[in-house]
Amino acid sequence: MKTKLNELLEFPCSFTYKVMGTARPELVDQVVEVVQRHAPGDYTPQVKPSSKGNYHAVSITITATHIEQVEALYEELGNIELVRMVL
């Protein structure tokens, strides 16, 4: 049974992205810059380093207004050069 994301969400809703990327100071700024284009607001992302410190996990929560916004953010966040994975 395959369920689509838009069938599980009721908009507007709170939606958290977890972005895994190379541990560089500019990673958080680049993530926030992309999010601001699609969901302007005042964000305070949480950053957790990996056990060896090579990667950072950046968690950022938005108020999503429609499924196209959620999907566009997944795509654009994944296109950031430092990013390895978006959950």
From TrEMBL:
Recorded GO CC terms: cytosol
Record InterPro entries: UPF0250_YbeD-like, YbeD-like_sf
SUPFAM superfamilies in UniProt: YbeD/HP0495-like
Top-rank lineage group of the source organism: Bacteria
PANTHER family noted in UniProt: UPF0250 PROTEIN YBED
Family: Belongs to the UPF0250 family.
Protein name in the entry: UPF0250 protein GRH90_08005
Source organism of this protein record: Acerihabitans arboris
